[in-house]
Amino acid sequence: MPEQPELDVVCEVIHRRVIGKRIVDTGSAPKGASIIVRDFTQRGLSGLRESTFDGVFRRGKFLVFTLTRVVQNPGDSANGEPCATMFVVINPKLTGRLQLCLPTERHGLNCHIWLSLSDGRELRYIDQKTMGQVYLGDVAPEHLQIPDYSTMGPEPLAVTRADFLLRIKPFRGEIKGILTRSEFLAGIGNAYADEILWTAKLHPYRKRTSLDAAELDRLYAAIVSTLTEATTKVRVEMGENIHLKPRNFMNVHMKTGQPCPRCGTTISLIGANQRITNFCRACQPGGLIKGM
Ligand SMILES: [Zn+2]
């Protein structure tokens, strides 16, 4: 699942390469697109033709594009203007990615939506398991019925230490579970929660209520430093290949069996598939292990 650092870098590339470009054509693989697209405009994907990308921003794990749409009959737009704003909101979830490439590059089986841009490139949505969602709307995403959008908490790098300490108080469960709840902070998922907790030297299954003031301070500092430093590393490794998810630089996540970069202890694994937890038993002591 792309998280804040990856999506921030995707946004930067989109700003450079896509904003200001016009969509000259649209295409989709009907089966995948019917699962992925939620159309609140009733115009379908083809309704994006001749629209121009105006802007993009990230909110939590969502990417929000704003476009200017030329209205054929100005009487059709809400204010009678010849142009109207529309929104494309992408929630890539576990397996969705964007790709920016030339149209000559083969459409793989996982490419479900493609937009031909006025500079000759294609912006594609690829998704191995069609788990992500692409929403089309004529109003801002907070006014659309997008699951988990309007309930999101603040961005992790926008909360002060004092706000963080206040916000975490009502949450009483395991600290990793709290970090990945979007109502608490938006944009942190399974991978970066592991990295943050390793930096903070906190066991992922420690209960929030067991953390003292110094540990909560360490956690806040680790959120800021981990996400900030990761964005710099992702920027270098991703380049303009926005379909990649560079994570080799991580310290513990997906490093099962390798030595902890801080103490050399073998990195532990709990869980399976996409919900694995990696941590160092020596650096991150304590916590009740699930099932024990
Ligand atoms: Zn260690």
Number of domains: 2
What is the alpha-carbon Rg in Å?
21 Å
Structural class: alpha+beta
- Compute the average pLDDT: 94
Helical residues, percent: 10-25%
* Biggest sheet architecture: 5 strands, mixed
Name the CATH superfamily assignment of the largest domain.
MutM-like, N-terminal
Your description of this structure?
With 292 residues, this protein is an alpha+beta fold. The chain has two domains: 4-143, MutM-like, N-terminal (N-terminal domain of MutM-like DNA repair proteins), CATH 3.20.190.10; 156-279, Helicase, Ruva Protein, domain 3 (Orthogonal Bundle). It is built from six helices and eleven strands. It has helices spanning 4-17, 30-36, 161-168, 175-179, 190-200, 213-238; strands at 23-28, 37-39, 52-59, 62-70, 83-91, 96-101, 111-117, 122-127, 133-137, 268-270, 277-279. The strands form three sheets. Strands 2-9-5-4-3 form a five-stranded mixed β-sheet. Strands 1-7-8-6 form a four-stranded antiparallel β-sheet. It has a two-stranded antiparallel sheet with strand order 10-11. Strand 3 and strand 4 (62-70) form a beta hairpin. Helix 1 packs parallel to helix 6 and helix 5 packs across helix 6. The radius of gyration is 21 Å and the shape is elongated. The model has no long low-confidence stretch (mean pLDDT 94). The structure holds zinc ion.
